[in-house]
Write a structure and sequence with these properties.
With 407 residues, this protein is mainly α. Helix content is 73%, strand content 1%. The protein contains 13 helices and 2 strands. It has a two-stranded antiparallel ribbon with strand order 1-2. The longest helix is centred in the C-terminal third of the chain and has 35 residues. It is globular and about 65 Å long. The two termini are 33 Å apart.
C-alpha cells in the first residue's frame, strides 16, 4: 500500500465529511481485501508478476503494463514532491519563518515563505537528486535494506500524525466541520469533493506488487499452504490499514477542521503543536520515506521498461534512469499539488489495478463454472469502481485546472 498516501486522508475528509470518509475508506478497504484475495487465489507457482497472472487468463499484457507504468511514474513524482516539501519545511523552520493564523470558521494560515533560503522548486530539484542516487543501483536485489529503512520511517510518520492530531484536538486552532461554509465557489467544492475519492484510493496500491511478494514466499513456504498463508497476511495487512487509515483521516480532520493541509504534517508544523526539533525529526523521516520508496518504485519501473525496450547496455541503462527521474522531478516542480497528484494516480492506475482487473481476471478464468449471482455481483462491482475512478479523475483534473489557472 502507498504508506505516505495516508497523509492526505485528513484533507480528503475535510471535503467528504466524517461520515463520507468513514464509509469510503471502509468500503475501499473491504473491496481491496476482496480483490487481493481473488488475485492471490488466481496466482499459480510459475506466475511471478501481476502481468503473468493476466496473461495466463488471456488478458492483454499491454493494458496492464500501461497502468503499471502510470502508477510507477506518478508515484515517482509524488515522492519527489513530498520530499521536496519536507526539505522546504525544514528550511522555513530553521530560518524562523513567521506563521499567522487568520482565525474564523475556516481558519487559515499564512506562512512567510520569503524566509526560506531556497525556493520550494529548488528543494524539489534537490530531492530529485536524492531519489536518483539510490535509483541508480543495479536492481531490486540491492534494495531490501533500503526498503526496511523506508518501512520503519512510514510507521514513525503514521504514529507521529496520530499523536500530533491527538495533541491538537483540543487546541485553539480547531475550526468548524462544514466544508460547504468555507468554499466561495461551488465549482471548487465539487472538484475537491471528487478529488477526495482519488486521494482515498491512492492508499490501496498494494495489488500491483502482491504477486511479486507471493512469488518470493515460495522458497520459504510449502506450495500447498501458500494461498492459505498469503490469505492470513492479506487479512492482517488490510485490518491494520483500515484501522490506521480511519484514525488518521478522522482524527486529523477533528483536530484541524477546515484548515487541515493537503499533507497532514504541514498542519502539525503550522499550528506548532509539535516542537521545532520534533518537526525536523518528522520531516527527516518523510525525506527518508520519499527517497527509499521513490527508489524502490523506480527500480520496478526500470526492470519492466528495460525488458520492453530491450535495454541491456549499462550506458543506455544509466541514461534512461536519469531521464526518468528528471521527468518526475519536473512534474513535481511545476505541478506541486499533493492532493491532486495522488488523486490522479489513484483514479487512473490504482483503480484498474487494485479494484477492476483482479475481478476481470477471475471472471475470465471461472466464467464457465461460476454462479450467475457471483458474475452479476462482479459486473456491478466493476461498474461501481470504474465510476468512482472516473469521477475522481475528472475532479482531480478539474481541480488542477482551477489551481493552475489562478497562478
Amino acid at each position: 500500500m502507498k504508506g505516505v498516501g495516508v497523509l492526505g486522508y485528513a484533507y480528503a475528509t475535510s471535503w467528504l465529511g466524517f461520515g463520507g470518509a468513514a464509509v469510503l475508506i471502509t468500503t475501499a478497504c473491504i473491496s481491496a481485501y476482496y480483490t487481493a484475495s481473488l488475485l492471490s487465489g488466481l496466482q499459480e507457482p510459475d506466475q511471478k508478476t501481476y502481468i503473468d497472472i493476466g496473461k495466463a487468463v488471456g488478458a492483454r499484457g499491454w493494458h496492464i503494463i500501461f497502468f503499471r507504468l502510470v502508477l510507477d511514474f506518478s508515484a515517482n513524482a509524488i515522492m519527489i514532491l513530498l520530499g521536496g516539501e519536507a526539505l522546504h519545511a525544514i528550511d522555513l523552520l530553521t530560518h524562523n519563518a513567521t506563521v499567522t493564523y487568520l482565525g474564523g470558521n475556516c481558519g487559515e494560515f499564512i506562512i512567510d515563505r520569503e524566509a526560506s533560503k531556497l525556493s520550494a522548486r529548488v528543494w524539489i530539484l534537490i530531492m530529485g537528486c536524492f531519489v536518483l542516487l539510490p535509483s541508480m543501483t543495479k536492481d531490486l536485489s540491492s534494495m531490501w535494506q533500503i526498503s526496511a529503512i523506508g518501512t520503519a520511517s512510514v510507521i514513525a510518520i503514521v504514529l507521529c500524525s496520530i499523536v500530533g492530531s491527538i495533541i491538537a484536538f483540543s487546541d485553539k486552532y480547531k475550526a468548524t466541520y462544514d466544508g460547504r461554509e468555507c468554499v466561495a465557489a461551488n465549482e471548487i467544492y465539487a472538484a475537491e469533493l471528487l478529488t477526495a475519492f482519488g486521494s482515498i484510493i491512492f492508499g490501496f496500491g498494494y495489488h500491483s506488487v502482491q504477486p511479486d511478494i507471493q512469488s518470493s514466499l515460495l522458497s520459504e513456504t510449502d506450495p500447498n499452504n501458500l494461498h492459505k498463508d498469503m490469505k492470513k497476511a492479506i487479512i492482517a495487512a488490510f485490518s491494520i490499514a483500515l484501522l490506521s487509515y480511519l484514525v488518521v483521516a478522522l482524527l486529523g480532520f477533528a483536530a484541524f477542521g477546515e484548515s487541515v493541509a493537503s499533507d497532514l504534517l504541514l498542519s502539525l508544523e503550522l499550528t506548532k503543536v509539535v516542537s521545532e526539533a520534533g518537526m525536523i525529526v518528522i520531516w527527516v523521516f518523510v525525506i527518508i520515506v520519499a527517497a527509499t520508496e521513490g527508489a524502490i518504485i523506480n527500480q520496478a519501473a526500470f526492470s519492466m521498461c528495460f525488458q520492453l525496450l530491450g535495454i541491456s547496455k549499462r550506458s543506455y541503462d544509466v541514461i534512461f534512469r536519469l531521464v526518468y527521474v528528471v521527468a518526475g522531478t519536473l512534474v513535481a516542480m511545476y505541478v506541486p499539488f499533493f492532493a491532486d497528484l495522488t488523486a490522479i494516480t489513484g483514479a487512473l492506475s490504482i483503480t484498474p489495478l487494485s479494484f477492476i482487473y483482479p475481478v476481470v481476471f477471475w471472471n475470465m478464468k471461472h466464467k464457465a463454472d461460476a454462479t450467475k449471482w457471483r458474475l452479476r455481483f462482479h459486473y456491478v462491482f466493476i461498474a461501481v469502481w470504474a465510476s468512482i475512478g472516473a469521477a475522481a479523475l475528472a475532479g482531480a483534473i478539474w481541480s488542477l485546472k482551477l489551481k493552475l489557472g489562478s497562478e
